[in-house]
Amino acid sequence: MRALVMTAPSQGSDRTQIQEIDTPRPGPGEVTIDVAYAGVNFLDVMARRGDVGYVPAWPYVPGLEVAGTVREVGAGVSDLTAGQRVAAFTPGGGLSEVALTRAVLTVPIPDQISLLTAAGTPMMFSTALLLLTDSARLGPGDNVLVHSASGGVGSALAQLVPAIGGGLLIGTVGRPDKVASAQKSGYDVVIARGDGLIEAVRAATGGGGVDVVLDPLGTSMLDVDLAVTAPGGRIVLFGNAGGGQPAPLPPAGKLIGGNVAIGGFSISSLGASAPERVAAALRRVLDMIATGRLDVAVTKVDSLADVPAVHQLLADGRGNGKYVTRVTSTE
Ligand SMILES: NC(=O)c1ccc[n+]([C@@H]2O[C@H](COP(=O)([O-])OP(=O)(O)OC[C@H]3O[C@@H](n4cnc5c(N)ncnc54)[C@H](OP(=O)(O)O)[C@@H]3O)[C@@H](O)[C@H]2O)c1
């Protein structure tokens, strides 16, 4: 089968190429999926540049989410059948014609949802939902601040926060030219990060601060986060987009005195330790899409051969929303 293979770490796309590799077969509790479409993620870029903890071994086939049809089920898998339309999280290997994953992380797709849409859902929307519900424990009317608001997860949060009863939604973006796209996706207030950010967030909340901060920027914005979080607020760190070693967390006294909690979230780790929670989130967002409560907008990439250029777009911070590539679909 054909797959996108990263042969060694690189800042560019020079070591990413399409190769013919062995087609996987499912072991116990696993399934293989004929991949119609696969999601492209910033996490692929973090793997490509060799960030610690993202690649088990080189060469590496990236790809963390797919939609397609079940090809084969392994021993002990009774709730999925060959030919069934499914969306799934993959532990890498999704950007290939046949993906291998655990059955517990594979979810049937409601009839109303296309394979293209379904492929863009697992990472973007399940991450956003779990961040809000499991990690940040969003309460009714809670104000939310999201960093990197114009990306895929950021745009999913723009829909989910109002859909599940949140309050004012504030987003930050890395460059002024990204403000418009975050506004378009639904943010009430969008601020380009830079001088005056703390004052701008406070002003947007009438001085009271935000109840929840969702931050994928390592620890680089943590001082800002602490300064704008209201008493009782929760800060969730869920990424390290800039790479490098995150700084130590603030001393306990600062958290005690500030009445704030800092937590972390990783959907990959949760998928390993509590896969049923991750699958439940995917089922819930697929149901919300099928019933018209969420709208997934994706940018369709023509083929696996075009994915390295998309990875570079994301690496340069020039991405906009969610990218999904056609793999074997003829649509
Ligand atoms: N923990 C989890 O389970 C989980 C799951 C999915 C994604 N994530 C993380 O969430 C973040 C957003 O993911 P996504 O899929 O929405 O990605 P995306 O659409 O590619 O957005 C990534 C954004 O990160 C920001 N950024 C900050 N520093 C950057 C740098 N040095 N290089 C490139 N971009 C940089 C840019 O936005 P600004 O310019 O606006 O800052 C960029 O648009 C990523 O950091 C990803 O690793 C975490």
What can you see in these coordinates?
- The mean pLDDT is 97.
- By secondary structure, the chain is of the alpha/beta class.
- It folds into two domains: 2-121 and 296-326, Alpha-Beta Complex (Quinone Oxidoreductase, Chain A, domain 1); 124-267, NAD(P)-binding Rossmann-like Domain (Rossmann fold).
- Helix 3 (122-135) crosses helix 10 and helix 6 packs parallel to helix 7.
- The protein has eleven helices and 15 strands.
- Bound molecules: NADP nicotinamide-adenine-dinucleotide phosphate.
- NADP nicotinamide-adenine-dinucleotide phosphate binds next to helix 1, helix 3, helix 4 and helix 11.
What labels would you give this structure?
15 strands, 331 residues, GroES-like_sf, 11 helices, single chain, globular, Rossmann fold, 2 domains, oxidoreductase activity, acting on NAD(P)H, alpha/beta, Quinone Oxidoreductase, Chain A, domain 1, NADP, binds NADP nicotinamide-adenine-dinucleotide phosphate, seven-stranded mixed beta sheet, six-stranded parallel beta sheet
